[in-house]
Amino acid sequence: MTALIDLSFRLTRRPRSVPRARSALHAVLADWGAGDELLHIAELVLSELVTNALRVRGPSDRQVGVRIAHSSADGLLRLEVSDAGTGRPEVRHPEEDDTQGRGLWIVDAVSHRWGVSERLGGIGKTVWSELKAPDLVPAPATREIAAIAVQAGQSVRVWGEWRTIRSVTSERHAAGGLMVVLWLDDGPPLRVPAGEPLAVRVRVPGSHATPPAVE
Fold it and tell me: Which of 48, 65, 189, 191 has a CA positioned 20 to 30 A from the CA of residue 100?
């Protein structure tokens, strides 16, 4: 059976969103069983795509969308970054001493294929890259994943019981760390560090949810 695993989230238009996108990707791919080489290449690609999206001129309140997906049908990992800017990015061929213009050149060099498409449901565009990832496998029915990768619709084991997650938000901890807030179907919200492992029952492959922007 073909299985699609995917995760979508939004980022604010701030430089610190680049390392946050990279951290979220690392947590997701580690949970999906990715090896070091794929992790390194995927983080490099996503960093370049998010960096380019943040450089696009536009209102400061416009957010950058990120989608991470893997289909068992073709064994490809797909990374998408959407922004509200116009135009289409083009690969430049920088000289050896150039300090800029290498982003898409790197993406083009390491991707199985990449491209640009119109942004679904809004203005702007989506730049995507696909990487060969035949060894990634669909998640088991129950497993431990980092809190940053938890999605609405999953069930999480807390206080000795399984609770369904209604929505997911994030906030900054007083000490400076990123906290994930899980709003449950019963009881108070659960606040946990972004990297803390949680036991979850994974939703049926093929569905996905979009948590609010990571501030």
Answer: 65
Which of 18, 206, 34, 201 shows the shortest CA–CA distance to 134?
34
Angle between helices 36-55 and 103-110 (to 10 degrees): 150
Q: Give the count of beta carbons closer than 10 Å to the beta carbon of residue 179.
A: 17
What average pLDDT does the structure give for the chain?
80
The DSSP bridge partners found for residue 76 are 71, 132
Is pTM beyond 0.85 here?
Answer: no
Residues 6+ apart with CB under 8 A from 82: 53, 64, 65, 66, 67, 119, 124, 125, 126, 127
pLDDT band at 186 (very low <50, low <70, confident <90, very high): confident
Q: How far apart are CA 215 and CA 172, in angstroms?
A: 8
